[in-house]
Write a structure and sequence with these properties.
single chain; alpha+beta; 7 strands; binds zinc ion
Length: 93
């Protein structure tokens, strides 16, 4: 058993087909999209009637916060580029 460093949730680690380790929530949830077969995690189509594992990244509040921050940074960068292009455009006129 392991715990998420970000939110302290109970997680387990699974190995994907690509051989990478991925944290999943300890408890299966309806609509989960990860099935472990022969020790390998496989992504399947989510079925609301079937409880399966789900990536902890999908539910971790800390991860969501980090993603939001990343998204914010990306938006800011896009805006910066847009403005840079605008000023370039104005300069050429
Ligand atoms: Zn977490």
């Amino acid at each position: 058993m392991a715990y998420c460093k970000g939110c302290q949730a109970t997680i387990t680690w699974v190995r994907t087909e690509g051989g990478r380790s991925m944290p999943v929530n300890f408890e299966k949830v309806p609509g989960g999209n990860i099935e472990v077969k022969d020790g390998v995690a496989i992504f399947v189509a989510p079925d609301p009637m079937v409880a399966r594992l789900i990536s902890h990244f999908a539910t971790c509040p800390e991860e969501l916060k980090a993603n939001a921050a990343l998204l914010g940074a990306k938006k800011a960068e896009e805006e910066r580029r847009r403005r840079a292009q605008l000023s370039l455009f104005n300069f050429r006129q």
